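Teaching note: in complex prediction, the entire set of molecules is handled at once rather than each chain in isolation. The prompt given to students was simply: 'Predict the structure of this complex.' The entities are:
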Amino acid sequence: MNPMLETTITVNGTRVTRRVEPRTHLVDFLREELGLTGSHTACEHGVCGACTVRVDGEIVRGCLTLAVQANGRAVDTIEGLSDSGEIRDLQAAFHERNALQCGFCTPGVLMTAQELLRTRPAATRDEIRDFMSGNLCRCTGYQSILDAIEAVLIARRQARPA
Amino acid sequence: MKASSFGYARPASLAEAFALLARHGEGAKLLAGGQSLIPSLNMRLAAPELLVDLGALGELEGIAPLGQGLRIGARTRHCEIERSALVAERAPLLAQAAPHIAHVAIRNRGTLGGSLALADPAAEWPACCVALGAQIVIASARGERRVAAEQFFKALYATELAADEILVAVEIPPPAPQARSVFLELARRRGDYAMVGLAAQANRTDGQLRDVRLVFLGVGAIPVLARHAMAAIEGKAADAAAIAAAQHELSKDLSPNGDLYTSAEAKLHLARVLTGRALAALAR
Ligand SMILES: Cc1cc2nc3c(=O)[nH]c(=O)nc-3n(C[C@H](O)[C@H](O)[C@H](O)COP(=O)(O)OP(=O)(O)OC[C@H]3O[C@@H](n4cnc5c(N)ncnc54)[C@H](O)[C@@H]3O)c2cc1C
Ligand code: FES
Ligand code: FES
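The expected output is the structure of the full assembly:
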């Protein structure tokens, strides 16, 4: 058995220190050690995006990042974005437009959408589609997801002083 | 699935990394962005004793001028290459190719060196490095050596790298004043590995294409330099007749294997389509 390694991560603003097995990936760490079950695991090989979280402000695949690799870093999860109000408008738009059905993909989709909204405020609908291509949804058929993101993109653009 | 148990080390220097590789031999595996290695661990296609994380080696990071060319550290992430103003100016082919690699969340972690060391036949960086005439810088306890990208890729997922070596950087020669580049790719869905892709580079002088480099991905075990097609267009204006001649010659350069989704004939056809588009764009 390989030694557990002491790992300190700032999760949603709170520093936590745990001893973890090197093979534990970040989503399992968040879900099983910290009880943050908003980030989901499905494919565990990078294809579906259900596990999307932020490390040092950038989205990553939580199933393709080891918890020990996040040592000393800041991790934000859907719980953090939700509690802080950072994506309140996005959540409302998803609700209004039925952009979720079972909701399994939704936390990952929201994490990715928020990265798009922050980094590409001028994105076209085709660019939104490209950006969201790494998040799979088995229920909605995607159109309502694109509608919701596009609506928030336009609303945030209009709200920003020119 | 979950990975089997392994140890984890994060050396603070290359010397320390070489010592770990020497001690653990075949049991050690280098970890860069993890975007190809961790999936294979999760699926138990690989079960190393020890991961040697390159993440703390500052000397493997960053994009810097090298004369009028560029040196890009092996640990530089796909997203950093995509955003770099220096890359856009001195090796625009890389900036054009970057958005085709996987998805944003994967580009935020995956690295140039990891992609080259893995040598997936449908990956973008290997073909770009061959097209640009890049040098791959390799280090080991025995010292440093340079290998031309054209010689670096040996066979399917096999490269020049020995088990005790680490890819440290890529050096890209300065672009000629008239240099132009185009990267084109056909994939079933944005972010998927290419069915067929083309990294194309040429100098355009007096309306003619010179020093043309056409390098295909997704059609062979390694990046394929289309020498016959290149010869057909060399020194010509890329008019319809010259483009058709180059497209015709491609059947001498490429003998693609069909895969689950695309037959060999379809791949050759798509390669011709991309060649036509790329030559027209280079000449424009
Ligand atoms: C869903 C998905 C889609 C993808 N789509 C694409 C795509 O379209 N195009 C594409 O090119 N890639 C794609 N990738 C792969 C991605 O680009 C990887 O980042 C890349 O192939 C490997 O880089 P890495 O830094 O993550 O390497 P790792 O996964 O850490 O390592 C890969 C291999 O290289 C070795 N290695 C790493 N660094 C070094 C080094 N410096 N010296 C020697 N050996 C080293 C490792 O030991 C390992 O064997 C995709 C990945 C996923 C999960
Ligand atoms: S669980 Fe991570 S991408 Fe599917
Ligand atoms: S809402 Fe069910 S997977 Fe997206």
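Point out the following to students. Residues 58-172 of chain B form a domain with the Uridine Diphospho-n-acetylenolpyruvylglucosamine Reductase; domain 3 fold (CATH 3.30.465.10). Chain B touches chain A at residues 1-8, 31, 34-35, 38-39, 41-43, 51, 53, 55, 79, 99, 102-106, 108-109, 189-191 (CB under 8 Å).
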